[in-house]
Design brief:
The chain is mainly beta and 265 residues long. It folds into three domains: 2-71, SH3 type barrels (Roll), CATH 2.30.30; 73-129, Roll (SH3 type barrels); 135-259, Alpha-Beta Complex (endopeptidase fold (from Nostoc punctiforme)). Helix content is 13%, strand content 42%. The longest helix is centred in the middle third of the chain and has 11 residues, at 163-173.
Length: 265
């Protein structure tokens, strides 16, 4: 088995091993994976964060040892929270931007460095080690940083993000790992019966006419929701669904609400 970790800002993950295939998700900087299949030009990867799979270009693979891969699971997760952050390798040049939700493996607060493989980096920008207090306030604060980010199927960054990518990254920044797909996210936590009972950071899910969950959003405050639909936006929500404040119509039909965060802080 081979293993890798992203040393690029964003790596597209595709359904099939070709450039024109659908992008299903993205690997952000510092996120690691195992390689479960490959051909001359492509690798099929299993992401450690959420166990989703897909194909990435061989040229984007940054290989690490099995030992390093296993150590990553034992080390506290440090995550960037600024929309954009400047990273610099300690040796040589090559400043580049990484986006919110990126991982900083083996982060040392004493000298503001982290390590990917044998390469050490410094970072400018806010970061957080798994939050323990004020999780709900933190999540909404980070969600508002994505306001007006364009919708992108498979996206997980402020440059473009889909509905479940947004909820997943926001939970990651709060120190909580959840699946990539909205349907799987809807299986977590406990059920919320009434919209009025929802707290900031709770998730609301919406289905289509066939009953399939096709959308997810994050409760902001009473009867308000942050979600990615065309762009990351704030709309009204009630027991019928999402009421688009621009069109004056319901855009999504309510299916259920779930509470994953166990604290009310």
């Amino acid at each position: 088995m081979r293993y890798g970790i992203s040393n690029l800002s964003i790596v597209p993950v595709r359904t099939d091993p070709n450039e024109t295939s659908e992008m299903t998700t993205q690997i952000l900087f510092g996120e690691h994976y195992s390689i479960v299949d490959e051909n001359k030009k492509w690798c099929k990867v299993l992401l450690a964060l959420d166990e989703s799979t897909g194909w990435i270009d061989q040229k984007m693979v940054n290989e690490i040892s099995e030992k390093s891969y296993l150590q990553l699971a034992q080390h506290p997760l440090t995550v960037t929270t600024n929309p954009f952050n400047i990273v610099q390798p300690e040796k040589g040049y090559g400043n580049f931007l990484i986006v919110a939700g990126s991982s900083l493996p083996f982060y040392k607060a004493s000298n503001n460095t982290f390590r990917i493989g044998e390469e050490s980096y410094t970072i400018q920008g806010e970061r957080i080690v798994a939050a323990k207090k004020n999780i709900r306030n933190l999540m909404i604060e980070n969600a508002l940083k994505y306001f007006n980010s364009p919708y992108l199927w498979g996206g997980r960054s402020p440059f473009g993000v889909d509905c479940s990518g947004l909820s997943q990254v926001l939970y990651k920044m709060a120190g909580l790992q959840i699946p990539r797909e909205a349907g799987k996210q809807a299986l977590l936590g406990e059920n919320i019966t009434f919209v009025e009972e929802a707290l900031p950071g709770d998730l609301a899910f919406f289905d289509n006419e066939e009953g399939k969950i096709v959308h997810v959003g994050i409760i902001w405050e009473k009867n308000k929701i942050i979600h990615s639909s065309g762009k990351v936006r704030i709309d009204n929500i009630d027991h019928f669904g999402i009421y688009n404040i621009d069109t004056g119509r319901y855009s999504h039909q309510m299916r259920l609400m779930r509470r994953i965060i166990t604290t009310n802080d």
